[in-house]
Predict the structure.
Amino acid sequence: MISAYDYIVIAFYFLFTLSLGFVFKALNKGGTDYFAGGLKMNWWLLGASSFVSNFSAWVFTGAAGMAYSFGVVVFNITVIDVVGFLVSYFWFAGRFRRLRLVTAMDAVRLRFGPANEQLFTWLQVVTAFFGGAVWLVGLSILLSSAFGFPQLPVVVFCTITITVMTLVGGKWAVSGSDFVQTVLLSALSVAVCALTIHHLGGLRNLLDALPEEHGRFFHPLGSIKYDWLYVATALIWGVYQKNSILFGAAKYIAAKDDRHATKSVLVPLIGYIVLPVCWFLPAMAATAIVPDLAERFAAFSNPSEAAYIAVCMEVLPKGLLGLTIAGLFAATMSSMDTALNVNAGFLVKNFYQPIFRKNASEREQLVAGHFATILCGISMLGLAVLLITKGEVSLFDAYLYLNAYIQAPLTVALFLSIMIRKTPAWSGWTTILLGVLSTILVYDVAPTPGTQAWLGATFGEGFANYVVTNKFTFTNLFTVPLCSLYFWSTKFCYRAKPRNAAYSQNLDEFGRRLSKPVDFESEVGDDNTAQQARIMGTLALVYGGFVGLGILIPNPLSGRFAIAFCSGVLLSVGLALVRYSKSIKGPTLD
């Protein structure tokens, strides 16, 4: 169970996270700094933020449950991430930076016009509010079921902490927090995996303890939810999702130039190649380490999702369990802080400024960003409280439906719009409309008795059942290709000289930016690489030093070695960055 040492570690995590906003406050002089890090971030800082904000506590719950139940098939999910980021590295990342944006919706305005900018902005903001609330509630349910933490205080503490950090420090604090969490979570994942193997007496014993069917990567059609067709269609979706304007541009906007944007992809790419073994081996080992998992975690709606946590509770020493719980907070809050900063940017740069204050100064945008961040934080907290106290099913279902109906067609339009540029302005919003209608067919019409009878008579009962039980696969198999084909076909409606001359001019500018590399010195200037390295190095040293104190906790030798390893990784990264900051010219902390 949780010891007093673990509570101290958790308390330190929250204090450390809160302090980051004030550490980075001085770097925010205006809206561009607050929402896009001044367009000055180095690849290693941006890459770490891209990596850790790409996943939440779901990796250690939902994905862990998948590993526990089905074995190595879970690695297909990480392959999807690897393929998506590979495409980013070789084509998209640098081009997104060349668009010279402050928010991703700036690209929507440039590509589709101001009307689409408003539509896409509000669709994304509303979806993000629901998404943040669901992340918070999911984390609170996890911690309540596994460790007895009350749900409401967890939600309130998380929201206040991350809102204050983002409010004060903006994009710099978000990326700084993500960097430290990336280093910590990477070291912690390796330590948990090593202790799991040690607990079972070696890797051979662990592998021998796994059920034989857990070694199968691809499963026959319809045998499990994650069959080979799911994997194949999800690979395509992964490329779309990782490289749409909304997801991709938001991750690479802040880079110093297109070369730093491209290089930043190496961090999540390597992370998703190396770390999944450390994430999922412990969950797979739960079959041997916690044979009574279902009984012990009956409070979970799906006890298999407690597999990783159950193993941690068995194998981790005092102090390191608290660090793992802090990691669960970090995994979710890293997604939240990004959502807060990104959506505050949308509200200010893509709603407040173009609608009310076209000539708003950088300072005014910064102040507006503070108010927008508070609004986003309050909205997420309010929805999370409602989800816990009033409408668990309805709100959660609303979020799932928003994602199913809106995100797929929106992502298709914002992915293909980079490559297929000569389309009319209405191609964006009509693609979303078509996606909504096609999703209604899959989610609402297909399960009805009449449609099921027709599908069964036409294609067979197996197909009819598969459509209902594998909706996500059919979203990728039906909605995404249909929307893609439709968007591509709209190019035949494009006029070389459209009635809206401004739209044509913006399209030309869109193409010119994509083809022109960024010259940091002439376009941005005032390089602060030394300051970035020194701040991040100092933070890593502080966190690493605190973790190192855990060696003094009375634990078995293996536990002390694990704590020393986590501390050593943080201290090594911190020392390397501080030394690097001294080797280059640039502003210092003074």
Residues 151-199 form the longest helix (49 residues).
